[in-house]
Amino acid sequence: MNIVCLDLEGVLVPEIWIAFAEASGIPELRRTTRDEPDYDKLMKQRIAILHEHGLGLKQIQETIEKIDPMPGAKEFLDELRAITQVIILSDTFTQFATPLMRKLGWPTIFCNTLEVAEDGSIAGYRMRIEKSKLTTVKALQSIGYETIAAGDSYNDLGMIEAGKAGFLFKSTEQIKADHPELPAFEEYADLLAAIKKAL
Fold this sequence. Notes:
The protein folds into 2 domains: 2-13 and 69-112 and 126-198, HAD superfamily/HAD-like (Rossmann fold); 17-65, thrh gene product, domain 2, CATH 3.90.1470. The N and C termini lie close together (9 Å). 44% of the residues lie in helices and 21% in strands.
């Protein structure tokens, strides 16, 4: 029994925080898990920047509504879901992911949740579980699944390395250089072919 675990941002959709950095004109919000391995540190920086500029969930959601999946992402996901089970494992938040899941045809996603104050400001966030991607992959393995994973960032490496096959997709030159043992792809057709071979 196989199950494929995919990252969301940078793999199927553009990076939400980069899109919001551009929309808001705040370059400091461009930092992502490609740049900062410590997710807690990254999120605390983001929340502090939002408070400093008086921005909240509503403004971010308005940007997300304008984000479309990467060209070819939905077709890739549809073809993959036709041949095996797929779960998207993301460190994003349900409040961000829902409109994107609609555009991707409602795949299954496991992610986290934001703590939003009454005035709409983001007060904090709750991780579903520590090291959620790796922990989820290990849990799937414990109930009889063999996992295949693909992602682009530091926080994907655990789930990529823990399965029977794992791939970097649209990753950074630094991550690819640090992990030459991981096959790295830039095109959905190549990733799909590699996953099919591993199934």
